Amino acid sequence: MIIRSFALAASLLAVTGCATVSKMTIADRLENLGLSRDRSVCMADELDDRLNDDQLNKFARFTVELDRADTALEAISSLRQIEDPRIARAVTASAFSCALN
User: Fold this and answer.
1) Quick one: what percent of the chain has pLDDT higher than 90?
2) From the centroid of its chain, how far is CA 44?
3) Own/partner pairs, 13-20, CB within 8 angstroms, 24+ separation
4) 14 or 54: which carries more pLDDT confidence?
5) Burial of 4 (0-12, 13-18, 19+ CB in 10 A)
6) Structural contact between residues 47 and 59, judged by C-beta atoms closer than 8 angstroms
7) Nearest-10 crossing angle of helices 2-32, 37-50
8) Would you give the DSSP letter of residue 7?
9) Of the residues 40, 42, 44, 83, which has the maximum number of CB atoms within 10 A of its CB?
10) What's the CA gap between 99 and 101, in Å, rounded?
11) Contact in structure between 101 and 42 (CB atoms under 8 Å)
12) What is the CA radius of gyration of the chain?
């Protein structure tokens, strides 16, 4: 029973840790693209609220491509390549929401 409880707690920590790492990765990469730290963190928080963990991790991996973009136009263009429309909508909504804050 104790071992099962420990395994469950470890699993929950691992899942929470992955989401936190993705969120911070997203914030760092958005900042590298030229957004302020506050806006980057705001967007990462918004995305964390709008997306499930799989989608958040997928977007975190996708931000590698955004990080390689030479211009904002290239970054926006690469956003069109996201195959999950929910992620694309969440990124757009988060960008608008954080721009208004």
Assistant:
1) 28
2) 5
3) 15/53, 18/53, 18/57, 19/48, 19/53, 19/56, 19/57
4) 54
5) exposed
6) yes
7) 140
8) H
9) 44
10) 6
11) yes
12) 15
Structure tokens at 77: 């263009």
Assigned token pair, 100: 């208004």
Neighbours of 2 (CB within 10 A): 6
Question: What's the mean pLDDT in 67-89?
Answer: 78
Name the average pLDDT for the chain. 77
Averaged pLDDT, 12-26: 60
Of residues 34 and 5, more confidently modeled: 34
Q: What is the pTM of this model?
A: 0.70
Angle at 12 (CA atoms; ends 7, 17), nearest 5 degrees: 125
Report the greatest alpha carbon distance in the chain: 55
Token couple for 17: 């840790």
Which residue in this structure is represented by tokens 């993705």? 22
